[in-house]
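Supplementary Methods, section 5.1.

A reviewer requested that the exact input to the structure prediction be made available. We therefore reproduce it here, unchanged from the version used in the analyses.
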Amino acid sequence: MWWTCRTFLVLLTGLLALSFSPQADSAAVLSSQDGAKEPPGPLRRVFMKEADASDFFRRRSRRAVKSPDELSAEQRQIQAADERRREFHEEKRNEFESFAEEEDDEQNERTRESTEQWREFHYDGMDPPYEYNRHTN
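The structure derived from this sequence is encoded cell-by-cell as follows.
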C-alpha cells in the first residue's frame, strides 16, 4: 500500500512541475482571435478559411447527391470490376475442367491397361482372345 501512495505523489509532483514550466505555454494553440493571419507561400493552398471548409463539407456530405458524371464513372468502374471477376472465375473453371478431363482420361487408360493385363493373364487358350471376338462380330 505504501508504494501506491509514493507513486501517486511522484506523478502528482511531475504533473505540477510540467504545468508550471515555461515550455508549457509555447505548446498552447493560439485561438482564432489571437491574430490569425493567412499562412505564407504554399501553405495558403493547403489551408482554407473556416467558412469555405464548412461549405465544402456541407456540399459533399455522405447524403449529398452525386453528379451524373460521378455516377456513370462509378458504374463503369463497377462493371469493369465485375467483368474482371467474371473472366477470372471463367478461367479458373476452364482450368479445373481441363484438369478433371485429363484426370478422367488417365484413369480410363489405367483401367483399360489393367483390364487387358487381367485378360492376358487369365486367358487359357481355349477361346480366341477378346479382341478377336470383338472384331469378327
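The helical segments are 2-19, 23-26, 43-46, 50-59, 68-122, 130-136. These observations are discussed further in the main text.
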